[in-house]
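Dear support,

Our group has been running a series of protein-ligand predictions, and this particular one with 2-acetamido-2-deoxy-beta-D-glucopyranose is the one our PI (initials K.S.) wants archived with full inputs and outputs. We had some confusion internally about which version of the output was final, so please treat the block below as the authoritative record. The input we submitted was:
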Amino acid sequence: MGISVNPLVLHFLCISASVYDVSSLNSEGQTLLSLLRYWDVVPPIPSTWNASHSTPCFWDGVICETDFVVSLNLSDYNFSGQLGHEIGDLKHLRSIRAIASFSLQIGEVGVSSFGLQQAERLNKLTGTIPDCFGNMSKLIMLDLQSNRFHGTIPSSLQKVNTLTFLALSTNQFEGALPSSLCTLENLEDLLLSDNKFTGTIPDFFGNMSKLSVLDLRKNSLRRMITTNFPEGSRLSFLSLSDNQLEGPLPKSLLNCSSFKILNVTSCPTLLPGKLNDLFISLNLINY
Ligand SMILES: *[C@@H]1O[C@H](CO)[C@@H](O)[C@H](O)[C@H]1NC(C)=O
Ligand SMILES: *[C@@H]1O[C@H](CO)[C@@H](O)[C@H](O)[C@H]1NC(C)=O
Ligand SMILES: *[C@@H]1O[C@H](CO)[C@@H](O)[C@H](O)[C@H]1NC(C)=O
Ligand SMILES: *[C@@H]1O[C@H](CO)[C@@H](O)[C@H](O)[C@H]1NC(C)=O
Ligand SMILES: *[C@@H]1O[C@H](CO)[C@@H](O)[C@H](O)[C@H]1NC(C)=O
Ligand SMILES: *[C@@H]1O[C@H](CO)[C@@H](O)[C@H](O)[C@H]1NC(C)=O
Ligand SMILES: *[C@@H]1O[C@H](CO)[C@@H](O)[C@H](O)[C@H]1NC(C)=O
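Confirmed final output from the archive:
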């Protein structure tokens, strides 16, 4: 679904409040009902989503804590359409789950107080990552794998330093790996495989003290890796396959005491002869 959004319209949507008058239903429930009009859902949302109730907390797929919607689990349904900017009115929402066919126009999810902490498997998305994401100050998990995003990683993501998991694999991102990633100091998993990233592997990865999984497979990264991993680095998985990198690998990888897997499959220029024998003797390498 490639719908382009005029920035002015987007701005308007970001600030407009939802007004959907439904008798005794509380505002959280009204917000949920107002989202329905964006969705084509198969099978239809069940009759438990009933406007005559006073709270949505007993509706299918809705999880509340003290009357506030904290989680939406829509994995039983197939969606297409847009998420709807009203979702931003669910100030306590931490997680949303939807199956792969959920088609979401994230360009509209732009409200400064957006409380979403998890956004998973939001496939069928296209375009660039909108700056709105930078305002999701509680986001801890952002999984946009297997969509059709292109362009560079937006610097607005650097504001989301609550992120522990960032997956942008299998899209068409390009350009150098931006230094803004370095400010994501809580990041543990960074999955960037299967894109068109170019340039070298940046030195700042050595400064991301919580980084444990780094997947850079299937990109166009080049040259020797000069990253210095200081003592105490938590890196445990590093996948470099299918790039044009050159050996030797930095010895400082040995500072990563929990290191388990180094994947250099299909890296013609990272041939065994050019690798440090130590890695081979430690049996860390997948060819
Ligand atoms: C909605 O809830 C009202 C009040 O509880 C009930 O009378 C009505 O039958 C419900 N509608 C549906 C479609 O379940
Ligand atoms: C979401 O709903 C699906 C289907 O009802 C269920 O299998 C799954 O465990 C639920 N996930 C969570 C996190 O509640
Ligand atoms: C969702 O759609 C897919 C493919 O169109 C179909 O295989 C699947 O059964 C659908 N799931 C539901 C819950 O309707
Ligand atoms: C993000 O929040 C700031 C301050 O609350 C606001 O000025 C800005 O317009 C918001 N940006 C987007 C893209 O929503
Ligand atoms: C990494 O951190 C060190 C010490 O804090 C600093 O001197 C260096 O400039 C940082 N490197 C990068 C690439 O951010
Ligand atoms: C381990 O890190 C320290 C800095 O913390 C560095 O001086 C040392 O050279 C590194 N070890 C290796 C084997 O590179
Ligand atoms: C290593 O890389 C190859 C080639 O990209 C891939 O097929 C394989 O699944 C990777 N293995 C691991 C453990 O990531």
